[in-house]
Specification:
two-stranded antiparallel sheet; 72% helix; 2 strands; mainly alpha
């Protein structure tokens, strides 16, 4: 299948998943954008799993899942926009800084956790795990 088509299809699936999160997850008081926060952290974790060095995922599957689906699920522009909206209101500056710092630290930690878990995933019919 064409690589661009795999990314487009995966991106569409990720965007639909993100929209469901946006509609189903309630934001926290003080303007903390919980739906965007959850979407970005989920994408960090799963891109770590998908990208684990021992995961023998075909290039097409990786394009669909990592580039397409996780790219569609996470959204840097929404992350920055949510932060900007909080910074417009001086009373929400502390929430904005908390959001930025926690998102970055947890995102990084979840990528590492995903990589570690991805290295230990049991083989399935779609994914083979290469043991070192």
């Amino acid at each position: 299948m064409n690589h661009a088509l795999l990314v487009i299809l995966g991106g569409g699936c990720g965007a639909v998943l993100r929209e469901h999160l946006m509609l189903g997850v309630v934001g926290l008081p003080g303007g903390f954008p919980m739906p965007i926060f959850i979407a970005n952290l989920m994408a960090c974790f799963f891109i770590g799993v998908i990208s684990a060095p021992t995961m023998e995922i075909g290039p097409g599957t990786k394009l669909f899942l990592a580039t397409g689906m996780m790219g569609g699920l996470s959204t840097f522009s929404s992350f920055i926009w949510g932060t900007h909206q909080m910074l417009v209101t001086p009373a929400e500056w502390s929430t904005a800084v908390l959001y930025l710092v926690v998102s970055m630290i947890l995102g990084f930690m979840l990528v590492i956790l995903g990589l570690r878990l991805g290295e230990g995933v049991m083989p399935s019919r779609f994914v083979r795990v290469r043991r070192s």
